[in-house]
Write a structure and sequence with these properties.
About 20% of the residues lie in helices and about 30% in strands. The protein has about 220 residues and is an alpha+beta fold.
């Protein structure tokens, strides 16, 4: 996962996932504009393994996170952003600075499938557990990247056990995915959530808090 080589930054003239736009509008009589991007909505799934009393999350390299760290340490990389060429990354940072812990998730890009069906596919592909739509509990939905994309993510909860695991997960290599499945013990979950040495999404923190407020009190006492 962390063997990242031959890094090169270049302008993005077209993308399957991002479309930049500028909206011009008048608000309270004042003329304004706002740059934004359209992208896919998504689903995410909080997975709890009842056999081992742990959360199942994923760990992967995120180029956007990596490049934020690059800019923080080497701001000159983006100084020529309006030109056709960028300086090469002569002293790249270790890939680990771009690795994050996240909930199992995926974009909504299959019109024929419901959000629940897409979530089930993601659980199987990324984490190796076979769940049905009946196994899912919808927690809520929220907007992410409200200043840039405004996309909607729908969060589900799924309980699994060891018998439901049919593969090691890891995503789909043919689509460029390289995912590591990580288990977070229930008793260590809130410490993990607030430990900034483990880069993570807000979805991890929020969903762990939701679990401790809504599910943990109903668990059998040991």
């Amino acid at each position: 996962m962390e063997a990242i080589e031959e890094l090169a930054v270049q302008p993005c003239t077209s993308s399957l996932y991002l479309r930049p736009f500028r909206l011009s509008y008048r608000q309270n009589g004042k003329k304004k504009f706002w740059d934004f991007m359209r992208t896919h909505d998504s689903v995410s799934i909080l997975i709890f393994n009842t056999s081992r009393q742990c959360f199942v999350v994923v760990k992967q390299f995120r180029p956007a996170v990596y490049m934020c760290e690059i800019e923080r340490h080497q701001p000159q990389v983006f100084e020529n952003q309006d030109k056709e060429s960028f300086p090469s990354l002569e002293n790249p940072l270790p890939a680990v600075v771009g690795v994050t812990y996240e909930l199992c998730a995926g974009i909504v890009d299959k019109p024929g499938l419901s959000l629940e069906e897409i979530a089930c596919e993601e659980v199987l592909e990324e984490c190796g557990y076979r769940v049905s739509t009946a196994d899912l509990r919808r927690i809520t939905s929220y907007r992410s990247g409200v200043g840039v994309t405004g996309s909607r993510q729908t969060l589900f909860y799924a309980e699994v056990n060891d018998q439901m695991r049919t593969s090691g997960g890891g995503g789909q290599p043919e689509e460029g995915e390289l995912i590591e499945v990580v288990e977070i013990p229930l008793g260590e979950s809130m410490k993990f959530a607030y430990d900034e040495t483990f880069p993570k999404t807000m979805g991890v923190i929020f969903s762990f808090m939701w679990f401790h407020n809504n599910i943990a009190p109903k668990l059998p006492k040991k």
